[in-house]
Amino acid sequence: MLDRIRALIVKEFIQIVRDPRTLAIVLVQPLMMLLLFGYALNTTVDHIPTAIADQVRDQRSRDLVRSLTNTGYFDIVAEVPHAGAARDAIDSGVAKVAFVIPPDFGADVLSGQPAQVQVLIDGSDPNVAQTALLTASTITQARGLQLLGQSLGRPIRPSLDLRPTVLYNPGLLSANFMIPGLIGVILQIQAVLLTSFAIVRERERGTLEQLIVTPIHSAELIVGKLLPYVVIAFVQIGAALLMGRLVFGVPINGSVNLLMLLSLVFLFGALGMGLLISTISRNQAQAMQTTMLTVMPAMLISGFMYPRESMPQFVQILSYGIPLTYFLQMLRGVILKGIGLEYLYGQVAALLAFGLVIATLSIVRFRRTLE
Prior knowledge:
Structural class: alpha/beta
Shape: elongated
Mean pLDDT: 83
Number of helices: 14
Radius of gyration: 26 Å
Strand order of the largest sheet: 2-1-3-4-5
Number of strands: 5
């Protein structure tokens, strides 16, 4: 009995080793999950991209900016001339927080009047917004106490008056952050999975060979197989937007037509990825495993659940190679911020470049498979 069991064990290991696709999934997926969960799952929000509109530029305003940066919570990514430019920096996604120090800040401090400091906060991510608001309040209070100590003996003591403004999501509702992100994640999973299944299923049933011998060209076959899933994807987007609005109360502040156009750009790469997976998978189980292998990094390091700014530098660099990173910025920008295409050229260019590369690779490999 032991000999028979031993022989069966050896046979099973031989089959695993001879199937490099399954072997790669078995070995790579656990390690990748461990690395991503270890580095990406960071509930501490810090290194928030910050814009500064210092309209005074004296020693007191520079001390305040230095106090903000010394905490490690705020990283100065832009210095702008006025509040309008600070709002543009948040609209474009360059910054998530902007501090506006008005021209009369120094004079108010010297005269003993409460010196106002305005802070604009991107409320589309409630976790980041709450951290920014709490940290900014703490720092300005501490700095106000320092100014109080410097003004002892004066009849009027200076202080700092923080004027926070939470943009896009004043109530800091988590649904407003999660629903647009879920639309992107669902769209990617559905597009990649359904596309890869469609081709693999034809191969398993033997009908792919029947299609090959028909007069249809390979390009026509690819278009005919992918176009129905584009239609399905648009139906899913419309249903998700409607449910998000009616059930969860998520406002749609931007253009729905623009959102659909941007979704088409994203689908260009997602469907190409599904087609590529179908060419390297022998059956639907392998297609499912490979799809999940691509979904896991996308969910963890794209900014879907956790702010990318809090992740290690090399993880942030990896996130630039994930299309969902750019699509989430588009979704939240259009749905919550109501911004237009003028703020999204960089994301559109990145998605088009990725889609062109992945679609070319998948089509070339698919044609070789057909041949």
